[in-house]
Amino acid sequence: MLQLEFTVEPFVEGQPGPHVTAAVSAAEAIGARVEFGPFGSTCTAAADAMPQVIAELVRAAFANGATHVTMHVAQSAP
């Protein structure tokens, strides 16, 4: 399993816009478990699914008004 930390901007505290919610929905549609956070979100997915999660998340974010997406991928803690 891999863990993806991501932030979709522009950031408005307490008011995630469609650029954020669409990105989260795209990751969840592929089967990733997303933990939505106040400043960024985390999702976990199988290593073979993570490239698709990343691609769909980025597509959805920018298609819905994102100006910047930051990502960090690491092995999940056992």
UniProtKB/TrEMBL annotation:
SUPFAM superfamilies: MTH1187/YkoF-like. InterPro entries: MTH1187/YkoF-like. This is Unannotated protein.
